[in-house]
Amino acid sequence: MAEARRMWAALKLLDRQILDREDRFAGNVDDVILERLDDGTLAVTGLWSGAGGLAYRLGARRFGRWLQRMRTELGDGDGVIALGAVQTIGNHVRVAKDAHELSSEATERWVRDHFIGHIPGNDHAAE
């Protein structure tokens, strides 16, 4: 296992933007996945990105789990980014994947295609 690093997960990870390997926006970190180690300490093993993660973190746990199940059933993935895919953690979280490979991007793309894309002037073109 790689050398561990201690950090305040809520301060350093939550609500950070996720950038892919080409610096494209791929969502936000909405929650962290923790695993209890043999010595009793907790370790971050993954990041959760997408509406289900945010709803769960904000207290709507049943709704968050439902959203996660729906995303998985629709083929959008579960919104989990394995910690092994994370390259750097700073002002943003950079991952070693392309945005389209992350399930968090599927939700962003769906909202863009079904809502944002229908708003007049969303392409910033002069009328």
Q: How are the strands ordered across the major sheet?
A: 2-1-7-6
Structural class: alpha+beta
Compute the CA-based radius of gyration. 16 Å
H/E element string? HEEEEHHEEEH
Q: How many beta-strand segments?
A: 7
* Helix count, DSSP H or I runs of 4 or more residues: 4
Bulk shape: globular
Give the rounded overall mean pLDDT: 77
Roughly what fraction of the amino acids lie in strands?
Answer: 15-25%
First-residue to last-residue Cα separation? 56 Å
- Report the biggest beta sheet as strand number plus sense, adding barrel if it closes: 4 strands, mixed
Give the helix level as a range of percent: 25-40%
Q: Low-confidence parts, pLDDT < 50 over ≥5 residues?
A: none
Please give a structural write-up:
The N and C termini lie far apart (56 Å). This protein is α+β, with helices and mostly antiparallel strands. The protein has a four-stranded mixed sheet. The protein has a three-stranded antiparallel sheet with strand order 3-4-5. The chain contains four helices and seven strands.
How would the blueprint of this fold be written?
Elements: H1 9-12, E1 17-19, E2 25-28, E3 31-36, E4 42-48, H2 51-57, H3 61-73, E5 80-82, E6 86-89, E7 92-95, H4 103-114
Parallel strand pairs: 1-7
Antiparallel strand pairs: 1-2, 3-4, 4-5, 6-7
Helix pairs in contact: 2-3
